[in-house]
Specification:
mainly alpha; two-stranded antiparallel sheet; 6 helices
Length: 256
């Protein structure tokens, strides 16, 4: 798992596995010792000597763990920087989200074994000046649309679009009623968008009622774990019951 950003999101953290978080590819590399020296032959020599010793002894101790971790980090660093250095096959908008997706597309094109990538698109706390075509909300959704469009054009040019399923979700929904500042406050029942040739287009649950509310909030009509369950079982070939703790019916969002 690879997260593009300063830190790994909680959504990717597990009991046994932790994702790699990368803000920029050129920052993900060995930076040398306190004197500022780069990755040297002496470093490689030390790592190789320790690797040989741990392999020979068969010891599974702290040293062998650190050796494996150092080697894995160095190899993945080199692969990621080489992948991102390659010129994109299409032109991307000059936005933070588009730059993140361009990095992901480059890593997919390079054949990285990563199965899950995570990018983020912030500043949706539109408590004011939200509405209208010139509002903050419309501008952010336009950036999302343009970035995803470029991403899938890139994947199609690579002939990888059929191998990539994208899920877009929000940390919060919106209240139905407008507040006093021309915006809406945090609410429930956030939408989830899915992209890719393998997705069945359309609305895959009932549209929430705007009159039958829960103290001013929407009542959700689909449990997000139904979508996660289907993606785990049908796309990642991972038993959803083991991950989610129980079984959930699928919404049949994915094509057979």
């Amino acid at each position: 798992m690879v997260a593009i950003g300063k830190e790994a999101p909680l959504a990717l953290k597990g009991r046994a596995m932790m994702p790699v978080a990368i803000e920029k590819a050129d920052l993900y590399q060995w930076t040398g010792d306190k004197l500022g020296r780069g990755l040297s032959g002496e470093y490689h020599k030390t790592i190789k000597e320790n690797e040989a010793m741990t392999t020979k002894s068969g010891a599974d101790d702290n040293r062998s763990f650190l050796v494996r971790t150092a080697m894995d980090a160095q190899l993945s660093s080199q692969k990621i920087r080489k992948a991102v250095d390659a010129e994109s096959l299409v032109s991307y908008p000059n936005t933070a989200l588009a730059n993140q997706l361009s990095m992901v597309a480059s890593m997919i094109r390079a054949g990285m074994p990563t199965r899950v990538y995570y990018v983020s698109h912030g500043s949706f706390d539109t408590h004011a000046n939200q509405g209208g075509l010139q509002g903050t909300h419309a501008r952010l959704l336009g950036q999302l649309s343009d970035a995803v469009d470029a991403f899938y054009k890139d994947l199609k040019a690579q002939e990888n679009d059929g191998r990539v399923l994208s899920m877009c979700f929000s940390e919060f929904g919106r209240r139905v009623g407008q507040n006093g500042s021309g915006g809406t406050d945090h609410g429930t029942a956030a939408p989830m968008f899915m992209f890719g040739p393998m997705v069945k287009p359309g609305l895959h649950s009932r549209y929430p009622s705007l009159t039958d509310l829960d103290e001013g909030d929407l009542k959700y009509t689909a449990d997000f774990r139904q979508v996660y369950s289907e993606v785990l079982d049908g796309w990642l070939s991972a038993p959803s019951r083991d991950v989610l703790g129980r079984g959930y019916s699928h919404l049949r969002v994915l094509r057979s």
